[in-house]
Write a structure and sequence with these properties.
mainly alpha, Rna Polymerase Sigma Factor, Chain: A, 2 domains
């Protein structure tokens, strides 16, 4: 029998710790999976889930069924916490291996990443239509996972320019793929 998350949140408001345990038992593994997809590092993802449950416990009274489902609220709490951890570079352990079998080779160039797109011929064709610097910016952001700030530092360019390039390049790709 599936847990009634809305009722469980109501019990959390009343101070029922078993309700939080029930939410954890029901949603914890899926929440960890969501956090892993966002954060790519198991220890940080586990921290995000733990922090999310603390926030769920403390803020259960803020849940409003008129604004959305209990599951949506819980996963929004988790997503916001995971994104906060992702932004706080001090929390990321660079020596940890990312989760998943595909690990990006730091020596791989953006051109090498483009060559791996043989299954996505349309995308490859559209990427090849971008000027080389913009194509490299897209690859470094979406293949190597660099943030806008990291990309600006690596390319020695202003952050605003990088953001504009990426935005315009993505719009160009979208038009090309349609």
């Amino acid at each position: 029998m599936a847990l009634d998350l809305e009722a469980a949140l109501g019990r959390c408001v009343a101070g029922d710790k078993s309700a939080l345990n029930a939410i954890y038992a029901e949603e914890g593994p899926r929440m960890l999976g969501v956090a892993l997809r966002i954060l790519k590092r198991r220890t940080v993802a586990e921290d995000a889930v733990q922090d999310a449950f603390v926030l769920i416990w403390r803020n259960a009274a803020k849940f409003d069924a008129a604004k959305g489902s209990a599951a949506t609220w819980i996963y929004t709490v988790l997503r916001n916490r995971a994104l906060s951890l992702l932004r706080s570079e001090g929390r990321m352990e660079p020596t940890e291996m990312p989760v998943g079998e595909e690990v990006v080779d730091e020596a791989e160039t953006p051109e090498d990443a483009m060559a791996r797109l043989s299954d996505a011929d349309a995308l490859k064709h559209c990427l090849e239509r971008l000027e080389p610097k913009r194509r490299m910016a897209i690859a470094l952001t979406y293949v190597h996972g660099l943030s806008h700030g990291e990309l600006a530092g690596r390319l020695n360019m202003p952050l605003g320019t990088i953001k504009s390039w990426l935005r315009r390049s993505l719009l160009t790709l979208r038009e090309c793929l349609q």
